[in-house]
Amino acid sequence: MNNQFRTISILAMLCSLLVLSSSYIYHLQNWLVFNAKQDSNVFKNNMLPNQVGVGIRSIVSSNTGSLPLSRESNSNIGIEQPSTTSSANILTPNVGDEAEKEVARFTDLSSININPGMNQDVLIHSNRTIPTIVELEDELLVEFSSDYSNYEKQKVLSRLLVVPQSLNITKILSSDPIETAKKPALYKKILDQNKKPIRYPAQAYRYAEYLMQNESEVIQDELGVFFIVKIPLNTLELPEKVKKYQAWVNLYAEEYNVEPSLIFAIMDVESAFNPLAVSKSNALGLMQIKSDSAGKDVYQYVDGVGHKPSRNVLFDAKENIRIGSAYLALLKNKYLKNITDKNKKEMLMVSAYNGGLNKVLKAFDRNEKEAINKINRYSENYVFRKLTKGDLSLETRQYLHKVKKAKKKYAEILNLTAQS
User: Residue ranges of the domains in the chain?
Assistant: First the structure.
């Protein structure tokens, strides 16, 4: 009887052990399946550089070490990652509580979860990838996955253009009010479709719409379908060799009431900013002043002295700019004072600076007074054609084209500088 009871007890214990072990096996099996899926996702999202597809991902070379364009659990939102290449800065998601708070406030984004298999500070989107921003030398590239609506893309682009924090994804994805009292980090670095620097959200929103319609493309690769927006960067600024003359140009432009952009343009075309330039006709310095003509006139009518500037004086950069600016003022306010239209007057000033006043006026009539009367009657377009296609020398005809183009360039640069 005791043996029979002992046998029954052993059998019952064995049954219990079998049931318990089957439960552990079930959970072990589930754990293995789960981790197999996780490993598959990690592999998918951490592609080797030679697996990069077309489009924005192809910017990252195999030399970058890691691929910050992975689709899910990126780290470091809003921190510009140092790149081993000199051509691109690539921004990926941020780390920490502040990043969680900021991204969570972005309208319509899916909830943010903590991946139990990763550091608790690293954030991922369960159903949404974060836009990728790549900064190249002459443009920004912004990549959206296919799960972003046009409204969301336009909102992200708008905030990118006006947030004060430079390329900070957490601020771009936030729905907090824009700090409009501060200038955007990209102010002047990006110009809108009208070539104006972007200062406020309404202007940014219109430009974002323009970019989506005119500067975008859809690409597809092994990772899916992506919407790429290209934002041109404005690299217009005064070259270093020009900046050193800016203070003197501003000084004499104000003193003689001549536009700084015109002075810069003439310096550019005449000497390419070489203070020791000498022409075949012995015009000297930055603004190519002839001592016995323009130089003599300035000394006589502006300075009130009876001699002409020396060679050494004209090779002095500051004095050369002063004499050249003063001569432009003489053309404007003395020799051509009876020309009523300011645009026609400037064209005549520029042509006369190169070809001489008498030759320019004779292109319209041999009599100076009658020439001025005709110029006042003629349209602006006719005067321009006469100066660029008429009887003047080829050099003078081309000169007006060159100076007009250069003046426009410097006017844009100086206007942007004034708004900074």
Answer: 1-45, 53-232, 240-419
